[in-house]
């Protein structure tokens, strides 16, 4: 039943999954720079801000995340932050993607060792 | 940068004035309109360099040798003598063009020739602006770096990014630049990092925009 529900919503790609996880981890502090640094620190994933914002736009169009505008700050040259938050649809897609990865990863360790 | 600026203004302005005068005289004597147009381009190039860049340099170097030709130290503008010379050359050029046109009945090839001359002058003017623009950007970058801000010229490129994401993306870049990259790597490498991020950021965003436009165009064509 779980997997059938996931088939209906568009499953997130690898980078989209990482971005969704970063937003979940950062909670209220999830804005562009923080997400960028989280991806670099935890996943070792270097990406440009352009690629990050393109992905965030796509996730927003899919209804996986929503955004809100914060206050302008001087260290950003007086520009406002754009905060992101994972929505219910995004959580469901992430849960499905994570469960699928876990199922596929079962028993993979010995096979990797053998290779 | 200051030395380069002074050097540029010192060398270019007297040279352009002399070269323009010779070209204008040659154009009048030989009745060649393209020479007149070129002289106009040359004098304008020199004059712009003088006014925009050569405020103190010109006054200090040439002014010592020829005090009457020196700029006003207060405003940095050319002296009355230089301005009169400039106006004389322009008047001579205009008169020669009018005389040349009056000399013969106006034919289509004359109109074409004048149009070509104007086009040449416009092209020369645009080309003359490019080094000045580059010099201005370099000066702006230097002053921005002194304030601990990212290079302004790279910020100009961010204007290519769709307005929806531009402010947030530029803000994120600036925050990371100021808070993390600049203290960790220093001004030179931080500047390189910023340029690299700008270049890497505009590519996927422009590509995404191009795909949307292509889809819209395809749909429009399909509906027609």
How would you sum up the major sheet of chain B? none
The total count of strands of chain A amounts to 2
Integer average pLDDT of chain B: 70
The H-and-E topology of chain A, N to C, reads as HHHHEEHH
Fraction in beta strands of chain A: 5-15%
**How would you classify the helix and strand content of chain B by structural class?**
mainly alpha
Number of helical stretches of at least 4 residues of chain B? 8
* Gap between N and C termini of chain A: 34 Å
Rg of chain B, Cα atoms, Å: 25 Å
Determine the N-to-C terminus distance of chain B: 57 Å
Low-confidence stretches of chain B: 56-68
Mean pLDDT of chain A: 88
Spans of chain A of 5+ residues with little confidence (pLDDT < 50)? 1-7
Number of helices of chain A: 6
Strand composition percent of chain B: under 5%
Quaternary status: heterodimer
Radius of gyration of chain A, rounded?
16 Å
Describe the structure.
The complex is a heterodimer of chains A (115) and B (224). Chain A is α+β, with helices and mostly antiparallel strands. In chain A, 62% of the residues lie in helices and 15% in strands. Chain A has helices at residues 2-8, 14-26, 32-43, 49-62, 88-105, 108-114, and strands at 65-73, 79-86. A two-stranded antiparallel sheet of chain A has the order 1-2. With 224 residues, chain B is mainly α. Chain B is 84% helix and 0% strand. Chain B is built from eight helices and no strands. Chain B has helices at residues 2-30, 33-52, 55-65, 80-103, 108-146, 152-157, 163-185, 187-223. In chain B, α1 packs antiparallel against α2 and α1 (2-30) packs across α3 (55-65). The N and C termini of chain B lie far apart (57 Å). Residues 56-68 of chain B have low confidence and may be disordered. At the A-B interface, α3, α4 and β2 of A face α7 and α8 of B.
Short description:
The complex is a heterodimer of chains A (115) and B (224). Chain A has 115 residues and is an alpha+beta fold.
Give keywords.
heterodimer, A: 115 residues, alpha+beta, two-stranded antiparallel ribbon, 6 helices, 2 strands, 62% helix, globular, disordered N terminus, B: 224 residues, mainly alpha, 8 helices, flat
């Amino acid at each position: 039943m779980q997997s059938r529900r996931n088939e209906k919503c568009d499953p997130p790609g690898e980078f989209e999954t990482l971005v969704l996880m970063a937003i979940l981890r950062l909670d209220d502090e999830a804005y562009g720079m923080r997400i960028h640094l989280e991806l670099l620190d935890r996943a070792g994933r270097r990406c440009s801000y352009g690629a990050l914002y393109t992905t965030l736009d796509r996730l927003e169009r899919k209804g996986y995340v929503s955004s809100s505008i914060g206050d302008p700050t001087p260290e950003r040259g007086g520009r406002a932050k754009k905060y992101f938050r994972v929505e219910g649809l995004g959580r469901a897609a992430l849960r499905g993607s994570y469960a699928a990865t876990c199922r596929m990863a079962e028993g993979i360790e010995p096979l990797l060792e053998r290779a | 940068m200051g030395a380069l600026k002074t050097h540029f203004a010192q060398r270019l302005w007297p040279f352009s004035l002399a070269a323009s005068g010779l070209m204008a005289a040659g154009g009048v004597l030989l009745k060649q309109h393209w020479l007149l147009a070129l002289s106009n381009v040359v004098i304008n190039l020199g004059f712009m360099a003088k006014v925009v860049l050569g405020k103190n340099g010109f006054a200090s170097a040439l002014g010592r040798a020829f005090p009457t030709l020196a700029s006003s130290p207060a405003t940095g503008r050319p002296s009355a003598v230089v301005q009169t010379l400039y106006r004389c050359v322009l008047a001579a050029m205009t008169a020669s063009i009018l005389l040349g046109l009056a000399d013969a009945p106006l034919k289509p090839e004359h109109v074409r020739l004048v149009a070509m001359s104007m086009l040449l002058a416009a092209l020369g003017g645009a080309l003359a602006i490019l080094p000045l623009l580059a010099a201005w950007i370099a000066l702006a970058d230097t002053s921005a770096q002194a304030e601990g801000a990212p290079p302004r010229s790279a910020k100009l490129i961010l204007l290519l990014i769709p307005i929806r994401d531009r402010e947030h993306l530029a803000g994120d870049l600036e925050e990371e630049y100021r808070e993390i990259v600049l203290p960790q790597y220093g001004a030179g490498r931080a500047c390189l990092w910023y340029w690299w991020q700008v270049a890497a950021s505009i590519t996927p965003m422009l590509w995404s925009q191009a795909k949307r436009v292509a889809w819209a165009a395809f749909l429009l064509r399909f509906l027609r």
